[in-house]
């Protein structure tokens, strides 16, 4: 029986709960994983746990530099088969102050676009089967009890 080749998976937001556990899962399966996130100490922790199959890069999707950093990570890994975007933030804002909404827009919309569009173009250029996965919040579909709403 032929052994399956490891996938090259990049996880955007690997320093938070879901992304971190996905990184651990894929690395433990023998896949090659590129982890990104804002917290260097979390990236260092997973690098120490799985030093052979991990590539880590501190990255903030709110920064314009993230697109170039993604390209560099793809090059460092020798390609990419799957991109998982699970960087997302949300703030409670019962008084509906506009400045509180800025960070989620830059992370959840602008950052998503800065990462997913180049990933899509990479996959289109290489012509290889690939996957883009986006993990989002249930709050986008269902109101939370603390969400402002009309009475």
The main sheet orders its strands as: 3-2-1-4-5
N→C terminal distance: 63 Å
The secondary-structure element order is: EHEHEHEHE
Sketch the major β-sheet: 5 strands, parallel
Total helices: the number is 4
Walk me through what this model shows:
The structure is a single chain. The protein is of the alpha/beta class and 151 residues long. It has a five-stranded parallel beta sheet with strand order 3-2-1-4-5, with helices on both faces. The protein is built from four helices and five strands. The protein starts with 7 loop residues before the first strand and ends in a 17-residue tail after the last strand. It is globular, with a radius of gyration of 17 Å. β4 (82-85), α4 and β5 form a beta-alpha-beta unit.
Kindly list the characteristics that best describe this protein:
single chain, 151 residues, alpha/beta, 4 helices, 5 strands
Structure summary:
This protein has helices at 17-28, 40-49, 66-77, 102-126, and strands at 8-12, 32-37, 54-58, 82-85, 131-134. The chain is an alpha/beta fold and 151 residues long.
List the helices and strands and how they pair.
Blueprint: E1 8-12, H1 17-28, E2 32-37, H2 40-49, E3 54-58, H3 66-77, E4 82-85, H4 102-126, E5 131-134
Parallel strand pairs: 1-2, 1-4, 2-3, 4-5
Helix pairs in contact: 3-4
